[in-house]
């Protein structure tokens, strides 16, 4: 109010960039511009650049002026929401020094989220104009770990016939990894993270259809692991789950069944 506005004519098929202040990188709602009282309405949405950092790249990335490109570091990992993540706050890229079959990197691979090296971020910052296209992630990979599967598209429906009874706390990366590979996860704990009782676990098992291919996602440090094994539920450990994702094969329990 009380300030003059500078008007600029936008030609046909002409691109312009509206700069965001560095405090506005979390904008989630589109900006709507009305051209005159009865004119065309323009809906402008920010293309998010949300970088999830893995391994030792955190310090180097934290020193870079990401606000200059409207980017931000995502400190929370992936959600296991089967209906999809929040597009404005979920990671768009995973930045790491080297490929490695960690849960975080395997989730990114399953979700088809580009895994890039720090050189990708440098290329983002070195663009002379925001009108230039974003760098191609494939040109800026992290250091190789000797595995070729990273360059092979994963099967998003690999475990769509599997149900995992999970004893892990809500938000655990193992659950997210299983869901990313197509499985359904049923938590054996309440909303506060309190483990189910034996009766509650038995009720969940009885609710599973006869043709359901279900497994217990276990951790020997947790008491529910012993209960699931006592109830003759086929169980898989985190390492077995990750190995099956890498090999793109169906799940097997600890006994190979």
Global Rg: 23 Å
As residue ranges, the low-confidence spans are none
Give the amount of beta strand, in percent. 5-15%
Number of strands: 10
Q: How would you state the average pLDDT, rounded?
A: 81
User: How does the helix and strand content classify structurally?
Assistant: alpha/beta
- Fraction of residues in helix: 10-25%
Terminal-residue CA separation: 71 Å
Spatially, the strands of the biggest sheet line up as: 4-3-5-6
Q: Helix tally?
A: 7
Specify the biggest β-sheet. 4 strands, parallel
Q: H/E series, N to C?
A: EEEHEEHEHEHEHEHEH
Provide a short characterization of the protein structure.
With 257 residues, the protein is of the alpha/beta class.
Q: How would you describe what is shown here?
A:
The chain is an alpha/beta fold and 257 residues long. Helices cover 22% and strands 15% of the residues. It is built from seven helices and ten strands. It has a four-stranded parallel beta sheet with strand order 4-3-5-6. Strands 8-7-9-10 form a four-stranded parallel beta sheet. A two-stranded antiparallel sheet has the order 1-2. The model has no long low-confidence stretch (mean pLDDT 81).
